[in-house]
Amino acid sequence: MQRINYTLNKKKIINDPVYGFISIPTELVFDLIEHPYFQRLRYIKQLGMTHLVYPGALHTRFHHALGAMHLMKMTIETLRTKGHTITPEEEEAVTIAILLHDIGHGPFSHALENTIVKGISHEDISILLMDKLNEQFSGKLTMAISIFKDTYAKRFLHELVSSQLDMDRLDYLNRDSFFTGVSEGVISSERIIKMLNVKDDHMVIEEKGIYSVEKFIIARRLMYWQVYLHKTVIAAEQLLVKILERSRELVIKGEKLFATPPLNHFLTNALTKGEFISDAGHLETFTHLDDTDILSAVKVWCNNDDFVLAKLCNDFVHRKLFHVDITNDPADEKLVNELTETAIKKYNITKAEALYFVFTDSIRNNAYKVGNENIRILMKDGTVKDIATASDYSNLQALAKTVEKYILCYSKDLV
Asked: Which of 280, 320, 321, 384 could form a disulfide with 315 if both were Cys (CB 3.0 to 4.6 A apart)?
């Protein structure tokens, strides 16, 4: 009997709602997309709890990574047409770097960062996972990791992956606008890419693209206040954080809580950054953790005997989110104390427990940072200027300032 040799076709095309058809450029990229570490991103929402405000915001980190990869391909093609040498190996490496840039995100993306593991960012975990993948793929990711860490000779390649005008931001602004329906975030990413160039080993924007970059910066600011830092989004994310804090507190006291094995691991082990890095088992367990672990636990904890945990979870499931006041000055201490006393009496709980229902925090936003990673404009005379200097839009200087606001959160049934 003749054996038929089936060869897997790795030249796939993916239909993306934002850009249309996206092609997978190489077999190595295909294999990385197929890897369980990357497939996990299908189950991590790009915008955490934002779907409780904008119901369409259910897209995932998986979508975003593929979109950023697509924009990287367009950028490399543009730079080559302008005479810049980028080898096929470098193209594959920078494509892998942008594809894997978010692979270290935990459940609900930024909402639970530093809650699952203290003091370690998703970028740190991304590098750890890239190193792990590099072992599994016999060193084929070495150049990609070098680009990601900004140790590769051509520094402009790193700026395409991580800077104030990188493929990450160009994708997520348009993608988040598309799925939330907030049109203020729509930017002309294709025009910006066509205006990209390289000068003195740095990415620059040709002067004729300056207005597209201005719109990009303004769109980013508007998206932060209307989407990422929307008061109801903050309310939902803070509620989820409080649920995880309370569950961990109970587990550390010895109480048995329902949790999937990966979630249970991180509830019972309050790991530091050093502990997480030193034991490879923690990283492997992390790769099995996604949004579904958190949601399944929250649903079960609604019936927990602990009043605080049960109320927080029921409020979350039934969308009874915190009331949030966002102000330019810290919350009135007298008001905070009154709300805390009300919580103690209404719920018959201790003052420490009342802090789960009444608390303050702060948020920061700056649309553009002036510094080493600034957006450079290549003027027609060949000089390079910072966008804040080159622009004739006076408000751009103001957008470079960090805006800090203060928040007061409390359960709505306290008033």
From this structure: 320
Name the 3-class secondary structure at 255: coil
AA letter at 238: Q
- SS3 call for 288: coil
Is the CA virtual torsion 169, 175, 181, 184 positive or negative?
positive
Does residue 297 sit in helix, strand or coil? Answer: helix
State the residue for tokens 């239909």. Answer: 15
Are 233 and 49 within 8 A, CB to CB? yes
C-alpha–C-alpha distance, residues 119 and 101, integer Å: 19
What is the DSSP pairing of strand 376-378 with strand 403-410?
unpaired
Question: How buried is 394 (Cβ within 10 angstroms: 0-12 exposed, 13-18 middle, 19+ buried)?
Answer: exposed
Angle between the 291-301 and 261-268 helix axes, to the nearest 10 degrees? 80
Token duo for residue 311: 């109320």
- Strand segments, DSSP code E, in 178-254 are 196-199, 202-206
Phi then psi dihedrals of residue 20, to 5 deg: 90, -135
Q: Are 71 and 167 in contact (CB under 8 A)?
A: yes
